[in-house]
């Protein structure tokens, strides 16, 4: 997968970003309700396309070039260059977000297997933990292949969901959008959604190592926004056809699948969704391991192999303990609060001081 050097340079970072974003960003559909559909079908669409996507592309383009220029492929090194002595502020916020997303993933994993196959809730959580631990143990090369490959699988399933749903409920979707409902604050919703998801850029930096020039890094960043948002956009349009009753659903994806009435496709979709939960957990925890490995490297030592899966297990257990708060509460309160912190300590510095440093750096 992505054996071509050109594809690795231009497309791999975008697909890795999409892989890490999806479970905490739109896999269950609850995030799309919280940040977009609540502003009305048209309001949410405007926020998604013209606010979130643009912010993702601009910040990713500048961040990828910043990482390439300063050879900063782990978040400790990256934020030392961006924030100086204040870099631990990002690490604190990142760990809080990490635990919230892992809690969302654990809750979703348990719910998916419970509702789809009737298995105990704990089996989904434990299965997800085992898979994440294995991938983290295997390291960057394996993670790149799995995340990029599963993204293509996910794209295929979302296209099927989109086409099938439009064939069944396309009239309702069109009616919802043409009604033109736009609630005040839709642009802020787009900013909030973009900001908290951008916090996972450190989980993508390892895939930016393939970029060798400013053109390659910036182009990869600009492509990241559209690559990551297209599955969300397809899912969102499907959800619009069930507005407003879908607003109160904890897992909107299950609601849509039940309406389609195909047990086979429901199973396939949930398997793919379960895989995205594993992807997101893997990417986020791998960023922590890369940060630890960097600290060992500075002391001319190698990070012990056992420490990678051990770190994953500790973080996953902590996240699982938080999962008892439920998907709706975690997404509405946890994500919403952290959004503003990441705007202040990452997005704004990156788009001001970061771009200034790039401009006066030794770029190509």
Describe the structure.
The chain has 364 residues and is an all-alpha fold. The chain has a single domain (7-349), classed as Amino acid/polyamine transporter I, CATH 1.20.1740.10. The protein is built from 14 helices and no strands. The chain has helices at residues 5-10, 12-25, 30-35, 41-70, 75-83, 88-117, 121-138, 140-178, 186-198, 214-240, 252-260, 263-298, 307-322, 327-359. Helix 4 packs antiparallel against helix 10 (214-240), helix 6 runs antiparallel to helix 12 and helix 8 (140-178) packs across helix 10 (214-240). It is globular, with a radius of gyration of 20 Å. The model has no long low-confidence stretch (mean pLDDT 86).
CATH architecture: Up-down Bundle
The H-level CATH homologous superfamily, spelled out, is Amino acid/polyamine transporter I
Identify the overall geometry: globular
Order of SSEs: HHHHHHHHHHHHHH
User: Percent helix among the residues?
Assistant: over 70%
Instruction: Calculate Rg over CA atoms.
Output: 20 Å
Please report the total strand number as a whole number: 0
Tell me the strand percentage band: under 5%
């Amino acid at each position: 997968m992505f054996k071509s050097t050109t594809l690795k340079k231009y497309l791999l970072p975008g697909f890795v970003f999409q892989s890490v974003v999806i479970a905490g960003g739109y896999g269950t559909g609850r995030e799309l309700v919280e940040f977009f559909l609540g502003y009305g079908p048209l309001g949410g669409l405007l926020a998604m396309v013209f606010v979130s996507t643009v912010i993702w592309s601009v910040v990713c383009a500048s961040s990828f070039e910043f990482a390439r220029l300063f050879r900063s492929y782990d978040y400790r090194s990256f934020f030392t260059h961006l924030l100086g002595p204040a870099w631990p502020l990002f690490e604190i916020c990142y760990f809080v977000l990490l635990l919230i997303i892992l809690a969302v993933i654990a809750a979703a994993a348990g719910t998916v297997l419970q509702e789809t196959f009737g298995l105990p809730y704990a089996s989904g959580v434990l299965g997800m933990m085992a898979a994440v631990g294995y991938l983290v143990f295997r390291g960057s090369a394996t993670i790149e292949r799995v995340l990029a490959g599963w993204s293509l699988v996910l794209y295929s399933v979302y296209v099927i969901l989109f086409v099938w749903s439009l064939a069944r409920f396309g009239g309702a979707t069109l009616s919802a959008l043409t009604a033109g409902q736009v609630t005040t604050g839709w642009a802020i919703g787009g900013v909030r959604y973009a900001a908290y998801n951008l916090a996972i850029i450190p989980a993508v930096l390892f895939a930016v190592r393939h970029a060798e020039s400013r053109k390659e890094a910036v182009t990869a960043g600009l492509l990241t926004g559209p690559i990551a948002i297209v599955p969300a956009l397809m899912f969102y349009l499907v959800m619009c056809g069930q507005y407003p009753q879908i607003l109160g659903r904890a897992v909107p994806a299950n609601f849509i699948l039940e309406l389609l009435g195909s047990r086979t496709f429901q199973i396939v979709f949930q398997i793919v969704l379960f895989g995205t939960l594993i992807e997101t957990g893997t990417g986020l925890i791998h960023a922590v391991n890369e940060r630890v490995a960097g600290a060992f490297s500075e002391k001319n030592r190698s990070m012990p192999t056992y420490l990678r899966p051990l770190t994953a297990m500790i973080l996953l257990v902590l996240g699982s303990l938080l999962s008892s708060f439920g998907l709706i509460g975690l997404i509405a309160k946890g994500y919403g609060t952290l959004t503003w912190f990441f705007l202040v300590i990452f997005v704004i510095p990156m788009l001001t001081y970061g771009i200034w440093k790039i401009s006066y750096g030794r770029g190509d």
